[in-house]
Design a protein that fits this description.
34% of the residues are buried. It is built from 7 helices and 5 strands, in the order βααβααβααβαβ. The protein has one domain: Rossmann fold (3-Layer(aba) Sandwich). The protein is α/β, with parallel strands linked by helices. It has a 5-stranded parallel beta sheet with strand order 3-2-1-4-5. Helices cover 49% and strands 13% of the residues.
């Protein structure tokens, strides 16, 4: 059986370290991370994830930023080199009027035959028609209890 491949974008990765327990869909984001840590799914990200996430962590939690980034970097998520996906990203930018940052996660998903997982509803509206996009609220990974 093939291991499912997911590309969590910054909106999902940030939920792993910044979100309060009341944050919408935080449970699903944590479940995705936990499924990956258990070896049940494969996570792949573009290398720019750390810059995008670091920017938000640094602004929202300046006192904890170094510790939060160290926690995320220690996960050692698989990064797909930009040379493998940049053309797809530029195509998404052109066709759907989205940022290169957002399109990079989607392009990685398309390149590796996986699915972008995002909490960014605006991105889903703009580029979801390109395929391989799963809103975090619709992600199903063998829940044992009803998610909120």
């Amino acid at each position: 059986m093939t291991t499912p491949v997911f590309v969590p974008d910054a909106s999902v990765i940030l939920k792993w370290v910044l979100s309060s327990p009341a944050e919408p869909e935080r449970d699903r984001a944590l479940h995705l991370r936990d499924q990956w840590l258990a070896g049940r799914v494969r996570l792949v990200v573009p290398g720019l994830w750390s810059y995008e996430v670091g920017n938000t962590v640094g602004r929202r939690e300046p006192r904890l930023a170094a510790e939060l980034m160290a926690t995320l970097l220690a996960l050692e998520m698989e990064e797909l080199p930009v040379v493998a996906w940049y053309r797809r990203a530029l195509g998404l930018v052109r066709r759907h009027a989205v940022s290169f940052y957002d399109a990079s996660y989607h392009a990685v998903a398309l390149e590796v035959g996986g699915a972008l997982v995002t909490a960014d509803a605006a991105y889903v509206r703009k580029a979801g028609s390109a395929g391989a996009v799963v809103p975090i609220g619709r992600l199903e990974l063998g829940w044992t209890a009803a998610p909120s």
